[in-house]
Amino acid sequence: MSDTTGASYAAAGVDIEAGDRAVELMKEWVRKTRRPEVLGGLGGFAGLFDASALKKYERPLLASATDGVGTKVDIARRLGVYDTIGHDLVAMVMDDIVVCGAEPLFMTDYICVGKVHPERVAAIVKGIAEGCVLAGCALVGGETAEHPGLLGADDFDVAGAGTGVVEADRLLGADRIREGDTVIALAASGLHSNGYSLVRHVLLGEAGLALDAHLDDLGRTLGEELLEPTKIYSLDCLALTRTTEVHAFSHITGGGLAANLARVVPDTLHATVDRSTWAPGAIFDLVGRTGRVERLELEKTLNMGVGMMAIVPQDSTDVALATLADRGVDAWVAGEITARGTHDSGAALVGDYATA
């Protein structure tokens, strides 16, 4: 007698009921991100945001960005810690948006898993929601996709997209920067979410270090250090624009400090950053020393302890530093804007790093 049982989605590895359970678990966290402009809740086909809120602008410019957190998700998977990776996602998206002076408005996420574990997915969304609160934006929707056969049962990845708004005559960028401007560095919370392919290769691969190993130089386990959430600067940057004149921001992500700073410096000017004004955290030395990574390679891969840079007029420097200090942000004068010489690039690091 032949088996007449037909194929099913569940037999193929997709559990719709688990997906529904994950949505129920995440609703509480999404509600915490709600802004007055958000209409409806989870469950619709699209998130709704009341654009009439933009009527207060003379000429509103919408800013958008999308990103992920790269191979840092592998650290979260190995450690079984899922409620911090969302902070990284929000930071990568919304701190790109605030660079032009835009206020973060709303965000959507995409979570791809090999198998839906409802509590795990809800923990990821919890972290995204907490990050949205820190960035001042709403989480208006998202998608959880189950990809059996393409991803292992414990594998996952996250991505997100965000939207912000800025008044046209308040738009920040290269055209505002002037010779003599001050470059202010805002401290990173750690590695943030870039360079993890190198970090994993050096520390977990070549050196064979265990994530649960306590390292005296770090003052905690390697896993705790590598999973440290990315600092979200959005509201700090907006506070600067309200308290003093700001010409530009630069989010220090992939490509490193000099390359990202050069993206906002006009062709006629040059940004010089003095390494001696700060000491990178112990994790940067650990990666460089353990993997015998040359300084130039480190600097174009990792943030070296600086997560955001603000370029302000020289006479705004003190107010900017005081504003950041009041908000608990470690910041310092790291360089200046000068005329570009014949052989100058957009930005360069000079000197040697300070020692801790």
TrEMBL record:
Q: Name one GO molecular function term.
A: phosphoribosylformylglycinamidine cyclo-ligase activity
Homology family: Belongs to the AIR synthase family.
Q: Does the keyword GTP-binding apply?
A: no
Source organism's superkingdom? Bacteria
**What is the native source organism of this protein?**
Streptomyces griseoviridis
Is Ligase among this UniProt entry's keywords?
A: yes
Chief localisation class: cytoplasm
All copies of domain PurM-like C-terminal, residue ranges:
178-342
Q: Which gene encodes it?
A: purM
EC category: ligase
The catalysed reaction is: 2-formamido-N(1)-(5-O-phospho-beta-D-ribosyl)acetamidine + ATP = 5-amino-1-(5-phospho-beta-D-ribosyl)imidazole + ADP + phosphate + H(+)
Which Pfam family, any one of them, does this sequence belong to?
A: AIRS_C
- Show where the PurM-like N-terminal domain sits: 58-166
What pathway does the UniProt record associate with this protein? Purine metabolism; IMP biosynthesis via de novo pathway; 5-amino-1-(5-phospho-D-ribosyl)imidazole from N(2)-formyl-N(1)-(5-phospho-D-ribosyl)glycinamide: step 2/2
Q: Where in the cell is it found?
A: Cytoplasm
Q: How is this protein named in the record?
A: Phosphoribosylformylglycinamidine cyclo-ligase
Identify the EC number(s): 6.3.3.1
Q: Which InterPro entries match?
A: PurM-like_C_dom, PurM-like_C_sf, PurM-like_N, PurM-like_N_sf, PurM_cligase
Q: Which UniProt keywords apply?
A: ATP-binding, Cytoplasm, Ligase, Nucleotide-binding, Purine biosynthesis
